Amino acid sequence: MANIPEHWFQNSVLYQIYPRSFADSNGDGIGDLKGIINKLDYLNGKKDSLGVTSIWISPFYPSPMADFGYDVSDYCDIDPIFGDLADFKNLLEQAHQRGIRVLIDLVPNHSSDEHIWFKESRSSKTNPYRDWYTWRDPKPDGSPPNNWLSHFGGSAWAYDESSQQYYLHSFLEKQPDLNWDNPNVREAMHNVMRFWLDMGVDGFRADWVAAISKDPELRDELPNPKYNPDIDGPHSSLTNARCQDGPNLYNYLNGMSEILATYSDKFMVTEAYPEKIKKPGPYMKFYEKINPVVCAPLNFAMIYMEFKAKKIRKFVDHYQRSLKPGYVPIYSTGNHDQSRIATRYGYAGASIISMMTLTLPGVPLMYYGDEIGMKDVNIPLNAIQDPFELRVPGEGNGRDPYRTPMQWDNTEGAGFSLGQPWLPLSTDAETINVKIQNNMPGSSLTFFREMIAARKTLEPLRTGGYHSFDTHPKVFSFVREADENDNDCVVVLSFSNKKVKIDSPEVNGALILSTHERDRSVAISQKIELMPFEGLLIERKLVESLKF
Question: What pTM did the predictor assign?
Answer without folding.
Answer: 0.95
